[in-house]
């Protein structure tokens, strides 16, 4: 029984996802509360009615106590996790024991991340986001929610089955020569050719990568591109997986499987659409320029000049239409979150996908909008803290710089097709209040105007980046033929490798010699036979390591500075019928590994960077440490101790490790600091000294290609 | 915007009981439903806000999940919740307190209330809210009273520091309790010294409850209202009605030899306890009728096999105090317990036999309750017993030595009728209980509510000698049974005096300087804590230790298979290990903790298990 709900402060449902069980539960409960003789109510109404008291109580607590609920647990172990992001309340529910509180919190944060990647800075305006998430048009709403639901399901599936989504780091396919060749191919052939084509319509390919299932075969970034954050890359992998589900559960697909998976084609396309005007009155409310500001207390979004957008047609779902994604860009001047990109996801074969990320011609606007948004947000913050006059306006850039830049910015928008009249009006009014001699100046009364400015800027941003492909006269995207060419170029390049890659992605680090392997596993089974009957299979162990690491069952090693991980594959599907049969033991070990990751995160959150556990017949180790670029081990620093309600530790939704590295680097100025993690699972009978020796060897070997036996 | 001002203790920022049945209508003000709110000085609008919102949201969630809410967490605090019928309890604390510990604290609090006041709904019908509010406050302050943070984490009993006490004194205390149990009306007892447990025969839960009454404040608070009593023993003796759950009662009524739950039982070398009867002087008759203790034993959830009877034959050093067990039955002419003081006067021999008979029939009839077949046996027993007990009374009459019990006013009407019903038939509680269910006197404690576990009224008898208190759980009949009461009183008076004198002279003992290592050893079964922590709150070197323990304890509680753990931050490494019977935590200061955090088998953190084993052996804790 699982569910996730996003609600506005007024208890309006902005999004919901439920599994069938939870849906049934809601319907039963609601049906019981309803009177006889009425037809079954719309599901959305039921869920909204049942959750309304919780949502309202939440906002009451925030208003009156400055506190908010984070979690409820019932005696039958149903868990409700709540989190408020600005004006949206997220509630995640689990009633089947498959997810813990941390998992639910993570799910909420991931959902928020997905929404940010899809809607960019519009998420910064509660009103606009509410409209985006809950379009008036029910058909449009159903399509959007279906899309979000399927992204959420894809994520949940990956988190439960894929180690790279468990630890939230990208897994590379380990085949150095092929990887190198592919990177070279992407650089010299593909990207160069695309970026020099006239058919690219002003777009520029910044990043290109090839995914085999969820694993990265090759990744190339053009020279003038900023690096792609791990958080964004993981989200893009979720999106790609959602578009072309790789059906990883089906092992070694036979010909019939290939057919069926290829049939799963691109999912129904979703592109954000303009929210239709809900109030015809908005035009009449449009203030006449220069009139006294009568709209001071009017909801700012009413004044959005969006009615004019109504004329734009919803783009037809065309497979060659790119996704608009909003990703972080780091430039010399700083970090710009949620900058618009186009994402082209080109299926090569089932399970193998080429992804292109392009910069769109108007992306400079986004940087400006973000700069202004940030300036107004800072100003608002200072004003609400009670600062006034010059103390409120200090900071970089100064308000006067902002003023002249914004004047120019609005002027530049003027002739374009972007509706900026409203922005112009609000800005004029803002200036009158803030800068006019004898005017009110910078004080608390300016706060609503800061908010209004932010809304207007978000509105402009929304116009710029949500609907561009709609202006059908000049399609702003790589032309379909160019896309096709890219696709076939890479297909041609990888034709001979494709089957190998598909297998390799499932056995990235694999056993060598299965006889030796089965003998080894037999020994393991003898040791843990009282857990499970014998004659069951265990797939995860790397044979290469057998002689060197007797007793080692599994490990995961993560380089947190690059966001990459290495681990033996854990194949536990029904069809993995190796010489050992199917694998409840592997399933058992898998569940242990999954819970171990959760456990170590809890300790890490409280400042413990080394954890060893003797649990049942297993011995688990976890280590986190820092090195400098040359591999010199740096002294363990004091780790930050985070409160219980802090964001989940990981790299997907919120990059804990980036913050950790920044925190740690304070004492290591001028040095490149790298952060590593190692998790191991050993048999409990192995002496601790030997286990620790193994850990040390693994830690020092895995990331050094010259000594890594895997490479 | 109201700010939350966390009152003194982070362990309990808020506690309230809210009665939803009083706020049903639209117009009913929330305050009507607030039965008790801690801290009492909280502004009423904040009280209303918390009660109204938490109870409301709790009900909504429990309806969605068809199950009551247990834990409610906020950003900066967490609440243990109990929902029963229309009652809603919430106990809030800061987020550092382990969730298991808050839930335990709330349960303890509610159980404590029910122990002294009976079922919740009923006590609110019988008593004014003000009176009961004072009791909640009392129980809460008792539970929060100044012990260390570690005590709070484990919710353990406060015990005397056994390292400074001569083990013989502990044995003596145990023997006093055993001596009291010769009176069949006495179920079990414990001896407390200055608010700390010296010896107990009861489960930790029950001991904890009994300890509240011992505190002087409670004594005063209850006097005007509670059915407490004092006799002419110069105010040294008092009693009050208490309510036991069925499982507690069953445990107490199971064979005494199986529940010999001694506080400082030295760990026995042979782990499997023999079912020895040596510790019990009086019930050693090898008769088939003593067997019914077995089925009862299986009913008792608290019977744990690792309870080794203290007085097993291997403890030969104790022979001075130990009543020679087999003698009493083998040769009734040579009464046992030579060293027990004061020696009973002339009635001794016969009373022995009488009690024996009482014992047996008592258990038998309880466990064959409702079983027609064994009825005949019962009759026979009872008749024999009546004969004997009259004999006993006669004997005791002689032994009274002029002490006059002033029993007038000691029996409230309820107990009278209860006594009448059960008359002088020795098989008290089972029969008495049946009688009660029959005609439901208002205080019977047999719940009128179907899903509320029935509570059985019993009496808590307290005998105080300065700082020392003997607390006995007795059948309500006991108070009206002058002879038994007198006998119990006199049989232990001298011993108690002696024990008190000894305990008083023991200096608290300068807490040994913690040195380089700190440990905490929690005995899950006896719910006791041994530690070399100084106990000062907020000690600098201890804080990381306590913080780690609270994390590890939660982890141990949530993961059954977890046996040991080492966790390390940059500054400290802590080792924790547990078995079904204990949890032990160990921290070593000094040494070269400066390291890179990379796996290293020479790392001092990984030698902690070995060091812990060595160090703790010196403190009598064997981790092997």
SSE layout and pairing:
The complex is a heterodimer of chains A (711) and B (624).
Chain A: E1 2-8, E2 13-18, H1 20-33, H2 43-65, E3 69-74, E4 79-85, E5 88-94, H3 101-119, H4 126-133, H5 138-161, H6 163-167, E6 170-171, H7 176-195, E7 204-212, E8 215-221, H8 230-243, H9 255-262, H10 281-285, E9 323-331, E10 334-349, E11 352-359, H11 363-384, H12 389-393, H13 399-413, H14 421-435, H15 447-466, H16 480-494, H17 498-506, H18 514-527, E12 552-559, E13 564-566, H19 584-605, E14 610-615, E15 618-628, H20 656-665, E16 673-683, H21 688-701
Parallel strand pairs in A: 6-13
Antiparallel strand pairs in A: 1-2, 1-5, 3-4, 4-5, 7-8, 7-11, 9-10, 10-11, 12-13, 12-16, 14-15, 15-16
Helix pairs in contact in A: 1-2, 3-5, 5-8, 7-16, 11-15, 14-15
Chain B: E1 14-19, E2 34-38, H1 44-65, E3 69-74, E4 77-84, E5 87-94, H2 99-117, H3 120-126, H4 129-144, H5 149-154, H6 167-180, E6 186-193, E7 196-200, H7 204-214, H8 216-222, E8 229-230, E9 237-245, H9 246-253, H10 293-299, H11 325-330, H12 348-367, H13 375-399, H14 413-422, H15 428-439, E10 455-465, E11 468-474, H16 482-505, E12 517-523, E13 528-531, H17 543-558, E14 562-568, E15 573-578, E16 582-588, H18 608-617
Antiparallel strand pairs in B: 1-2, 1-5, 3-4, 4-5, 6-7, 6-11, 8-9, 9-10, 10-11, 12-13, 12-16, 14-15, 15-16
